[in-house]
Design the sequence.
């Protein structure tokens, strides 16, 4: 079971999404899970974002993206073919991926700390949306603290809270613990979707397929709340 997967006090449920903000399929998955919830007639179901680093060994300054992609996929040409497929899928979800403009693959640990803080501030989904847009559309370096500060502030996090985050290690242990727990559960690809701590789907599948996977889990009764979702 995914840890820290509380059922909200009102007896409702959330979909927990294990993801990384440099994963283009996670951005597409965000759009598709929202469509799936619409198909289920459950647009009010919340999303809670859990950390996963695709490149935990990336240095703080990041890696050059084109060289990294060529190494990972064997050649720059093949990497571009894969990007073209992702871009086409993204266009179908209203995402204008700007792969040619992205210079770096950043270390995302600090971004996950910001997402952790945003959950406690009640603006997590807004922060995740801005992080995806910042990296994949605006081609910004989301490993830079100035970029993360701006995203946090634009999402409604106070300057004091952001100062506290970036002047200390607050949230670091929690992010590491949540990621380790996800890996121990067998998560090795993202996005992965959980309900009440239990896995229900993996990958940015079509909305109707995600809806079919999520529906039974979201309809289960909450013993604690005494109600059905």
Sequence:
């Amino acid at each position: 079971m995914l840890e820290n997967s509380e059922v909200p006090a009102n007896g409702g449920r959330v979909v927990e999404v294990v993801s990384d903000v440099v994963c283009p399929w996670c951005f597409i998955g965000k759009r598709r899970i929202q469509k799936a919830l619409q198909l289920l007639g459950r647009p009010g179901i919340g999303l809670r974002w859990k950390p996963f680093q695709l490149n935990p060994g990336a240095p703080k300054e990041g890696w050059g993206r084109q060289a990294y992609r060529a190494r990972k996929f064997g050649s720059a040409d093949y990497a571009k073919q894969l990007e073209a497929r992702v871009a086409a899928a993204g266009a179908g979800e209203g995402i204008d991926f700007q792969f040619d403009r992205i210079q770096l693959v950043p270390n995302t640990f600090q971004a996950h700390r910001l997402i952790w803080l945003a959950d406690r501030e009640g603006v997590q989904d807004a922060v995740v949306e801005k992080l995806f847009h910042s990296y994949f559309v605006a081609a910004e370096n989301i490993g830079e603290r100035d970029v993360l500060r701006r995203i946090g502030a634009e999402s409604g996090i106070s300057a004091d809270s952001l100062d506290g985050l970036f002047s200390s290690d607050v949230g670091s242990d929690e992010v590491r613990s949540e990621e380790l727990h996800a890996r121990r559960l067998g998560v090795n690809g993202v996005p992965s979707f959980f309900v009440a701590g239990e896995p229900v789907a993996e990958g940015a599948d079509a909305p109707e397929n995600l809806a079919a996977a999520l529906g039974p889990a979201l309809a289960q009764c909450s013993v604690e709340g005494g109600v059905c979702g």
